[in-house]
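Q: Hi! New to this. If I give you a protein sequence and the SMILES for coenzyme A, can you show me the bound structure?
A: Yes, paste them in.
Q: Okay, here:
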Amino acid sequence: MTLLPVSAAIRELRETDLPELLQLVRDAESFGPKAVDTERLDIKRDAIPDFGRVFVAEAEKTPVGYISVRRDGDIAVIDGVIVARKHRRRGIGRALVERAVAFARESSMREISVETGADMKEAIEFYMSCGFRISGYEQHSGGSEGQVHLRRGLQAER
Ligand SMILES: CC(C)(COP(=O)(O)OP(=O)(O)OC[C@H]1O[C@@H](n2cnc3c(N)ncnc32)[C@H](O)[C@@H]1OP(=O)(O)O)[C@@H](O)C(=O)NCCC(=O)NCCS
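A: Thanks. Here is the predicted structure of the protein with coenzyme A bound:
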């Protein structure tokens, strides 16, 4: 378990966490209603050891954030990261990313990547502050903002 300076700790997912993690999704202002179903599926899949891992940040025995990450060949893909609003800007999001990076390194992955909405300026700034760089942009038809791809290489860090 990783100890954080904010009295939060990072641990592996427990089966009983799911309702509280989905409540974090509902409370995240930047995610639409469809996100709950998507996140439920991502969490369940990524928690299967052959697929990936889900790490939970806990404060006072309550989940206050999580990250889901999966293997895609030799790339680790972050499917989702959320921190409860009242616990933001205390380093929990960064600590979750670093836990996912540690998992990726342990699994000999060459990079970790993530996609986020092009309109998610704060999420993009967060990932860039965690060492990711923009590697591409995908325009969507139908007038939506499209997706920004970000990546962080891991090999030079070893
Ligand atoms: C993005 C999110 C996970 C960040 O979690 P967090 O615990 O607040 O992040 P941290 O405290 O570790 O922030 C690390 C750095 O990222 C950057 N950052 C974090 N939130 C930011 C924001 N809202 N605006 C600009 N930069 C931000 C800062 O550089 C910050 O360092 P600083 O606080 O010393 O300035 C959180 O805001 C969240 O859950 N948002 C809603 C869900 C979401 O957008 N998820 C990502 C897309 S999948």
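A: The two ends are 22 Å apart (CA to CA). Let me know if you'd like me to explain how to read the tokens.
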